[in-house]
Specification:
The protein has 174 residues and is an alpha/beta fold. It has a single domain, classed as Rossmann fold, CATH 3.40.50. It has helices spanning 12-29, 43-53, 102-112, 151-156; strands spanning 7-9, 34-39, 58-68, 71-82, 90-98, 118-126, 136-140, 144-146.
Length: 174
């Protein structure tokens, strides 16, 4: 990881608060029929949103761009997709962070060929340099975010020290 990347940590409480705020914004606009979650970062936020929004139809798209924390590949690509029918439906695409915007744009372009009624996008965080701004986001940040569901990954990548997680890192495989 680059030494000039500033890191910030989020808590479960912060994530639930952010997703609660975003869920209210979504409902005020137009409740989606289907959630399409970008894996792997959007898996947990997407599940929480499905609970808040009472949505049972969920699709998954595994898109890859980062090789490791702070290191991107040449371009994003879709590794796999499992989707319910989205033809004629309102779709909400969910991810944790929109950094460059290229992954979110790739997924929206991919879904556009499936004749959805509408496609909206949501991320908890967005970076100010992103070329794609989601329809819904909680906050903008320039920092690398360590989420509570990726402690082991952050430890393995050397982004954080074990002491930062009060013994939780004891369960991580090396």
């Amino acid at each position: 990881m680059s030494t000039n990347v500033e890191v910030t940590y989020t808590t479960w409480e912060e994530i639930h608060r952010a997703l609660g705020v975003l869920a209210r914004r979504v409902v005020l606009d137009s409740k989606p029929d289907v959630l399409v979650i970008i894996a792997k970062g959007g898996l947990i936020p997407g599940r929480i949103l499905a609970d808040f929004l009472i949505i049972d139809d969920i699709g998954l798209i595994e898109a890859k761009f980062y090789k490791s924390i702070g290191i991107r590949g040449e371009k994003p690509y879709i590794k796999s997709a499992t989707l319910p029918s989205i033809t004629g439906k309102n779709v909400l695409v969910v991810d944790d962070v929109v950094d460059t915007g290229r992954t979110m744009q790739l997924v929206v372009d991919y879904l556009s060929s499936h004749k959805a009624k509408s496609i909206k996008t949501l991320a908890i965080y967005v970076k100010p340099w992103s070329t794609y701004i989601p329809d819904y986001y909680y906050a903008q940040t320039t920092k690398w975010i360590v989420f509570p569901w990726e402690i082991c990954e952050a430890l393995r990548e050397g982004v954080v020290e074990k002491e930062a997680f009060k013994g939780l890192g004891d369960y991580c495989e090396k």
